[in-house]
Amino acid sequence: MQSMILAFNAVFPLLAFMALGYFLGRIKLLNKQTASGMNKLVFKVFLPLSIFQSVCSTDIKSAFDLKVTLYVVCSCILSFIIISFIIKRTEKDKTVQPVMIQGIHKANYNLLAVSIVANFFGSEIGMAAVLIMIITPIVNTCSTIAFETARGGSASLSKMLKKIILNPMVLSSLLGLLANALGIKLPALIMNGVVSKLAAMATPAAMLALGSDFSLGSMKKWAKQLTAVCLGKLVILPLIIVSGAVLLGIRGADLVAILVYSGAPTAVNSYSTAVSMGGNEELAGEVVAVTSLLSVFTLFVFLTVMGSAGLI
Q: Sign (positive/negative) of CA torsion 116, 264, 170, 131?
């Protein structure tokens, strides 16, 4: 029962924020333009500050686990290869292929990991913060490869490196790591009075914006693709990756972080990636919205079972 309560406490705010966003969207208090602006603030200001704060305040030396790192890197790359192989042989539309691959592979880890892990373990977030700077460049590179190969191009190494380095999440991770390594401490007035308060706005703002734009309009049109992505992203992938982690003896906060990395909903910025790289933007938007909604329930089930089994 305790594990169920903790799991509910971890995922309920996501559903509440989305529901509120949906309501605000329906009464025209939160329109598309405002939601778009909120998303930009989340991914360029609130989320990078959240990542910086987490990395900066984490005892990396004691939290770092080579086994967890190697497992996440290998499973992330291998899963991308397998997902790409399957999708390219079951879906013929070249604009849909990369959207489905990205939809299954690219999770909203940056947005949800620290908050969900912290709900169970408080300030002991383990590798959750450290993994941000490991996962972010890998999934962004994989997304670029998926879209470039689908449209017959070749992914430019220099362009990918530039995108990765200039990614606000990667930059904030590196700055946090540097500050951590050098022992640089920002004044409490700035860290607690400004940074932490702005960082806390990341998840609520992102979920409100997502909920406001939620629509059931084209779900029937893309029912087959949406079903495949949701099953792959929210059930099959986390089931395989979490099971592998358990067999390796990974437990506690690290295991929760691995669950979020593999079973969190599709990253919100997947939609903008699809738009800018010639993917099917209608399907991309539906994937983000539907996986975000359903993940509240799938993550609850996973967390409850893991807690009941004494794994976390």
A: positive
Closest CA to 163 of 190, 132, 137, 125: 137
Mean pLDDT computed over every residue of the chain: 87
What angle is formed at CA 12 by the lines to CA 239 and CA 131, rounded to 5 degrees? Answer: 50
With beta carbons less than 8 A apart as the criterion, state whether 79 and 268 touch. no
* Residue whose tokens read 């794994």: 311
CATH number for the domain running over 2-308: 1.20.1530.20
Task: Give pLDDT tens digits for 202-260.
Answer: 888 888 888 887 776 667 788 999 999 999 999 999 999 999 999 999 999 999 999 99
The DSSP call for residue 163 is H
The SS3 assignment for 266 reads strand
Detail the DSSP E strand segments found in 160-215.
Answer: none
CA–CA dist 287, 109 (Å, integer) = 16
Whether 103 and 79 have beta carbons less than 8 Å apart is answered as no
Percent of the chain with pLDDT over 90: 38
Which band of pLDDT confidence, cut at 50, 70 and 90, is reported for residue 35?
Answer: confident
> Lowest mean pLDDT: which of 138-142, 238-242, 273-277?
273-277
138 burial level (CB within 10 Å; 0-12, 13-18, 19+): middle
Enumerate the β-bridge partners of residue 119. none
